[in-house]
Amino acid sequence: MDTRQLKYFVQVIESGSFSKASRQLFIAQPALSARVARLEEEVGKPLLLRSVRGVVPTENGLALYQHAKFILRQLDEAIFVARRELADVRGRVTLGLAPSTACVVGLPLLTHLAAMHPGILLNIIGALPGHLEEMARTGQLDVAVLFSPTAASEMTCEPLLEEDLVLVLPAGSDLVPPDKRSITLAEIAALPLVLSSPTHGLRRRLVLEFERAKLNLQPVAEIDSLLLVMRYCLAGNRATVQPMAATHALDAPERWRCLQISDISMTRSNYLFALPPHQLSTAASIVRMELRRVVTGLVASGTWPGVQMLSAAANECSGAVPA
Q: Mind listing the pLDDT tens digit for each residue in 37-55?
C-alpha cells in the first residue's frame, strides 16, 4: 500500500464513481479500477459497494477513507513546511482555547511559534467552550480546541486528547486525609465545592453523575472564571472538579493536590478543529500542526499529567463523506 493508492481510493469515494475519479486523476478507468482492486486485496475486505449508480464506501472503506484523508493531509503539510523557509510563512491566525487548555498550552505554543515561525501572529482567544463553539460556527476562529466532535460542523475535526476530570484542592488542605489517593462521589458531595454555572458542560456532566448516584450536588459558589475558581479554592480551603490542566491557572501546579474519582470514570475528550482546507491559510495550517506537536511534547514530558493522546487518524469526527 502506498500514498498513490490512498489518493486514488479517496478520489473514487469523493467522486462517487470510477469514471469521474479517472477524469480527475488523469488515469484510465481500467487502470484505476485495478489499483483499487489491489488495495482491497491487500486490506482483505471489500472497501466499495459498486452499482450502476456509482460507488459508496463499505464500513471498512469509510474507516480507511478517514485514515487516508488524515495521512494525505499530514503528508502535504509536512512537504510544504520542508520546502519553505520558516521565516517566509506570514499571517495572522486566531486560535480558540478553553481557559484550562490555554493555561497549560498557551505559553509553550506562543514560545514555540515565536522561535520556529516568527512571521505568524497568533491571536489566542481564551473563552468558555460555549462561546468558542459559537465563534467557530460563525467563522471567527481559524483553529480551536473544543470538547464535542459536533461543536462546529463547518470545520474539520480531529481527536486530540482525553483528560481525566479530578477533584482539585489546595495541597495543604485538611478536607481530605493526606494519605488518600482517590475519592468517591459521595465523599465529594460532602465537600465545599466551587463549580461553574449550570450551563457549563463540565457542570452538566457532574449533575448527571450525581443524579445517577442519587446524590445531591450543592456547591458553595458558582464561578465561570477559572482563575477566580482556583483563587477562591486556595484562599478558603475549598475544592473543585477540573481537568489537571487547571492546576496551571496560577502558574504553581505544586500548590494543588489532585485525587482521582474512584467510583466512576470521568474524562473529557478534546478535539482539534480547523477551517476546511479551501479556507485554511498556510499560517493556520502550520499553527494546527505545531499545536499538536506542542501538546504531544507536554504530555510526553509529564508537564501535562492526567492526559492520554488520541490518534488523529482514528476518526474524522463527523464521519461524513464529502459530496
A: 999 999 998 999 999 888 9
Residues of the chain with CATH 3.40.190.10: 87-161+268-314, 163-265
Residues 6/71, Cβ–Cβ less than 8 Å = yes
Architecture of the domain defined by 3-81? Orthogonal Bundle (1.10)
Which grid coordinates are listed for 268? 473529557
User: Cα–Cα distance between 208 and 306 in angstroms, integer?
Assistant: 22
Residue-wise pLDDT for 118-167, tens only, equals 999 999 999 999 999 999 998 899 999 999 999 998 899 999 999 999 99
DSSP letters for 175-229: SS-TT--EE-HHHHHTS-BEE--TTSHHHHHHHHHHHHTT-----SEE-S-HHHH
What pTM did the predictor assign?
0.73
Contact in structure between 259 and 177 (CB atoms under 8 Å): no
